Amino acid sequence: MSDGINLLSAKWGKRCLIATDRVGPWILSASVRGVKVLVTGGAGYIGSVTATALEQAGHVPVILDSLISGPEAFVANRIFYHGDIANRQLLGQIVADHPDIECTIHMAARVVVTESVTMPYVYYRDNVTKSLELFDQLARLGRPRVVFSSSASVYAEVEGFEVYEDSPTDPRSPYARTKRMMEMVLQDLAAATDIRCVILRYFNPIGADPELRYGIHAREPSHVLGQLVLAAQGRREAFLVTGTDYPTRDGTGLRDYVHVWDLALAHVRAVERFDQVLAAVGEPSVILNLGTGRGVTVRELVDMVGRVLGQPVPVTEAPRRPGDATGAYANVDRARQLLGWTAQSSLADGVASAFSWAAKRREVLGYE
Predict the structure, then answer these.
(1) C-beta atoms surrounding 207 within 10 Å
(2) Residues 189, 135 contacting (CB under 8 angstroms)
(3) Summary mean pLDDT of the chain
(4) How many CB atoms are located within 10 Å of the residue 26 CB?
(5) Which of 167, 188, 232, 237 is deepest in the core (most CB within 10 A)?
(6) pLDDT grade, residue 221 (50/70/90)?
(7) Against a cut of 0.85, is the pTM above it?
(8) How far apart are the C-alpha atoms of 160 and 198, rounded to whole Å?
(9) How many CB atoms lie within 10 A of CB 327?
(10) Which residues does 199 contact at the CB level (< 8 Å), separation at least 6?
(11) C-beta separation of 290 from 105 below 8 A
(12) Which whole number is the average pLDDT over 231-249?
């Protein structure tokens, strides 16, 4: 057993031993380096940036992606398997080829809220049913550690807008409901099987990797900053503010915008401290918020974009869209305590990074 586990055992006693013994022989050290990590959806926006952060920390990402949305250009020279997360034979081949895989970061999912409202079957099939097959096969293959990409969209609206991991949930769209369902699936599997999970509830990622190799790849991004980029580039007549009657300080929706590189670094910490985190809480699963701990309204984001660019962005207003929620911002105390992680980049950093990536995107992907 590693020194990190022994130290936590001394602090937490029998609870630590129960939490770690069920994992079996797969013990990760707090100072682990050179681990192989299966990254599903690793050709996507957050997946490709996270793979980069893993590499910089000395780890080896093994990418599994269907390329339904993620571009092949984002695979780079990494170990790559083109296929479906529910393909049990392929998963078996990956583990046979790489028996030293220690953890899976599961990011593969459909993620467009408005699309999920019109295509609920596709979202439940791909995000829920296929993920269940993935988790069961990982358990059968003796690879029980899962870091799961969840979403702040699972939260209910709360007074003051600050949400903790135990705040009420009330997912408002099929997309958000698939994320909450998979959280519950993982918690049930962790209680009954060898599966162990660290569930990361992302708030709103912005920006690109520091060297501008990976960023938003959708030709017409649906998220707010992507739409602002299009308006600032003149590819839209104006940025559309959807909803001005929310109970926020200026009537527009409120979000917690976290730089994607900060999110990627949190995944590295989750992999490296996986067993220690679960030992500390004395449970086979845990949920952690990943955000900045600050709420920003849509109008405030528009103003920040104008300041970064040195010129205002044209704006028009419209009613709320189906599935939209007022929003929230993260209490990040638990991630700070358990992962030793806090977001380091400012909102201005994230906005500047997004526009720098937009200027380079054609060079990387062949389109603006």
Answers:
(1) 28
(2) yes
(3) 90
(4) 17
(5) 232
(6) confident
(7) yes
(8) 27
(9) 25
(10) 148, 150, 183, 186, 285, 286, 287, 288
(11) no
(12) 92
Q: Note the pLDDT tens digit of each residue in 116-140.
A: 999 999 999 999 999 999 999 999 9
CA distance linking residue 243 with residue 164, whole number of Å = 25
Between CA 297 and CA 292 the distance in angstroms is 14
The whole-angstrom separation of Cα 155 and Cα 158 is 8
Strand partners, 70: none
pLDDT of residue 177 exceeding 60: yes
Is residue 311 a contact partner of residue 242, using CB atoms and an 8 Å limit? no
Tell me the three-class secondary structure of the chain, residue by residue: CCHHHHHHHHHHCHHHHHHHHCCCCCCCCCCCCCCEEEEECCCCHHHHHHHHHHHHCCCEEEEEECCCCCCHHHHCCCEEEECCCCCHHHHHHHHHHCCCEEEEEECCCCCCHHHHHHCHHHHHHHHHHHHHHHHHHHHHCCCCEEEEEEEHHHECCCCCCEECCCCCECCCCHHHHHHHHHHHHHHHHHHHCCCEEEEEEECEEECCCCCCCCCCCCCCCCCHHHHHHHHHCCCCCCEEEECCCCCCCCCCCEECEEEHHHHHHHHHHHHHCHHHHHHHHCCCEEEEEECCCCCEEHHHHHHHHHHHHCCCCCEEEECCCCCCCCECEECCHHHHHHHCCCCCCCHHHHHHHHHHHHHHHHHHHCCC
Neighbours of 311 (CB within 10 A): 9
Identify whether the C-beta of residue 106 lies closer than 8 Å to the C-beta of residue 149. Answer: yes
> Looking at domain 3-219+257-294+330-345, which of 3.30.390.50, 3.90.1170.40, 3.30.420.40, 3.40.50.720 is its CATH number?
3.40.50.720
Q: Which residues are catalytic?
A: 175
Q: CA-CA distances (angstroms) from residue 229 to 315, 318, 356, 368?
A: 12, 18, 10, 11
Alpha-carbon gap, residue 350 to 337, rounded angstroms:
24
> Tokens representing 207?
């920006």
Q: How far is 301 from 255, CA to CA, in rounded Å?
A: 9
Tokens of 131: 């993920």
Determine the pLDDT at residue 220: 82
Measured distance CA(223)–CA(163) in Å, rounded:
21
